Amino acid sequence: MASMNFRGMGVALITPFRQDKTVDWDALARLLDYQIKSGVDYMVVLGTTAETPALTEEERRQVRQFVVERVAGRVPLVVGCGGNNTAAVVKEAAAINPDEFAAILSVVPYYNKPSQEGIYQHYAAIAKASTVPVILYNVPGRTGVNMTAETTLRLASEFPNIVAIKEASGNISQMDDIIKNKPADFCVISGDDGITFPLITLGAVGVISVIGNAFPREFSKMVRLALAGDYERARTIHHQFTELFSLLFVDGNPAGVKCLLHAMGFIENELRLPLVPTRITTYEKIRRVLDTLN
Predict the structure, then answer these.
(1) 111: annotated active-site residue
(2) Catalytic pick from 42, 120, 166, 258?
(3) Which of 19, 241, 271, 285 could bridge 275 with an S-S bond, Cβ 3.0-4.6 Å?
(4) Residue 147 has pLDDT above 50, yes or no
(5) What is 245-284 written as a DSSP string?
């Protein structure tokens, strides 16, 4: 698979379930085709938004295979490959097929609460083993530990195959520090839909998006306009979605975006425990915003 530069909008794909909680393959196929027709730049399989921790190892293998076959090279694919057992992640990274995936997205180890040196060593081991480029993923709200700009920059400068970071720390000055001091070809990707526009104005290359599951064409357009420096038109689209940005996360991700996709008629509103659907009040607010947008 050709190398890619991660400019534009990548979508963090959900995993649709049927009412009996099995994977809804028909809905997944519809969603993949909708993303590609809408012009997304790439897709991320088995990330946080996919409820990956609630899938069995066999289901993860099936999802990977299904997506690869359905997409058939039409857009690049990135696969989630992270965890808090470094040896297991290293083994998985070494087995990724470069003909199928353009990169791995690897989250900062959660629950263990490693030091910055521990985070560095974890990613160093992955970088040495991985058959494809590595995108770091910093999301302290979920992992319990923030990877500092210093650690990110150290990894970016020492490992040529660590090519990007998905930054979801919410700390604009930290992200700006990375953008300012990074190697020229290292990419900073927004991990948060709501700050994608301002982050692009600072030098980020795009977003790995949750809202892109539902509005791939519109959100891709916003990202492209911002990257082209057409800030006024980009800001107009950004502001159309500001209410939705917060609604999608008020009851957690992916409960919000699954609620939205259900209201649009794409999927059943099903999640796997420990996640549950949004509250009825949130659902009604999302439906109201959807009516306004339509």
Answers:
(1) no
(2) 166
(3) 271
(4) yes
(5) HHHHHHT-TTHHHHHHHHHTTSS-----TT--PPPHHHHH
